[in-house]
Write the structure tokens for this entry.
Amino acid sequence: MPDPQHPDPRHDELLELALEAARRAGTLLRDSRPADLGVAATKSSPIDVVTEMDLASEKLITDFIGEHRPDDGFLGEEGAGVEGTSGVRWVIDPVDGTVNYLYGLPSWAVSIAAEQDGEAVVGVVAAPMRQETYQAVRGRGALRNGEPIRHRPAPPLSQALVGTGFGYLTERRAAQAEVARTLIPQVRDIRRGGSAAIDLCDVACGRLDAYYERGLNPWDLAAGVLIATEAGALTGGRPGKAASHELTLAASPALFAELQPLLDDLGAWHD
């Protein structure tokens, strides 16, 4: 495990690259969004859109990082896939919250994580329309715009504000709606923001008590899970498992202990 008393200087380099790449991509996306933005292609369903700006953002990020670290690997939502030889892999979501971005809604972000030997060690989530950037280095805590952040102390489950998301496939959405229907009477309320990275950061800074979702990909969760963890939240999936495509959950420790078995019983991990 990283030692906060003896930080790895390599992580400082990775953090600075991630921050600058996210800043540049966020500026591109914010300032160059076409007024007539259209859909260039579809992913898994007609609801799951890919815009020309997704592709431009990912190319900007991979080109910038690749110039500085040509031996690193990449895993990107829009197709970047390079093995690399350095032991470092960048996990990139060039626009997390693509539908929000397409419609001109402000809840979208650029998410960049750096993994070293398979473990996320740096995470950056830049949300330009919020004028906020979240960052974390494993073992060193989490920041928002340079200031430390911490998860909200756990309320009773009945007073918890819980974020979630819904997948793009019809069958999955129906199953997720049934889980939410059962959960809503047991909590304060549920929010669906449309960006997993922002939702995880909202847990990190106390704007949500918890967040869960099935169906996230590595680029959706890598940076946000690290940021939430470094802010003191517990993160994971089904009991005994890490956050994954099957289920991702983040919450303050006491609330996590209540929600994880409840979500497991409700079948939040399967379609």
User: Anything to note?
Assistant: The mean pLDDT is 93. The first helix runs from residue 9 to 31. Helices lie at 9-31, 52-68, 98-103, 170-183, 196-204, 218-230, 253-266.
